[in-house]
Amino acid sequence: MSEVQARLVREKIVAVIRTDSFEEAKQISVAMIEVGITMIEITMTVPEAPVLIKLLKNKYQADILVGAGTVATKEEAIECFNYQADFLVSPYLIEAVAEAGEMLGVPVFSGAMSMKEVAATQKYPNSLVKIFPANIVGAPFLKAVKSVIPTVQLMPTGGVNEKNILDWFEAGADCVGIGSDLVRIYRKDGTAGLKAYGQQLQEILASTVHK
After folding, report:
1. What CA–CA distances, in Å, run from 34 to 60, 101, 159?
2. Residue 7 CA, distance from chain mean position
3. Bridge partner list, 109
């Protein structure tokens, strides 16, 4: 297991930033970091996503891990690596991205929503798999995957929130990605509301998962 993967599993929450505004993505990222959620995924759908990755890494250094999400090509993988991405996430297993990760020495976490897709990712060194969209496949799917491939580590993303986060961990999640709620809360309640939400998530975990 890579050090990056170990840290994701240890800290439990990855803030997935997907918005069409660079400034909005920056503000959401900073708010999460300031309340202690230091695993950030900037999707390539954010304008100038690699620039934001580098900006955050330069500001916070080793205090945070910043990955690039929705990476679809070898060229994007190399660009994000050059802009200091700590890890890469693809929406499904894209061989060119996984192979680029191996070449660059950066972890690549591929998306999957079937047992066959999860199994296909296991040919590559890291075994953390992004279960996406998690709200479609459901928590019982994680239990099924773990029963067949017990060593695989899973990160459900899509529909994970404060109401069901513990259900996902009870089903076998090793960490979770939380995304759309961050943008929604930021647009409704601003930075203060977003920070309160981040703190709430951590308190839920601290009271149960980390015991």
Report:
1. 10, 29, 23
2. 12
3. 89
Confidence band for 128, pLDDT divided at 50, 70 and 90:
very high
CA distance 211 to 187: 33
pLDDT tens figures, 131-157: 999 999 999 999 999 999 999 999 999
Enter the DSSP assignment of 108. Answer: E
Asked if 110 and 80 touch (Cβ cutoff 8 Å), the reply is no
Kindly state the DSSP code that residue 186 receives in the 8-state scheme: H
Task: Tell me which amino acid residue 42 is.
Answer: I
pTM of this prediction exceeds 0.85: yes
| Tokens at 86, concatenated | 């700590």
Q: Which residues touch 24 (CB under 8 Å, ≥6 apart)?
A: 183, 186, 187
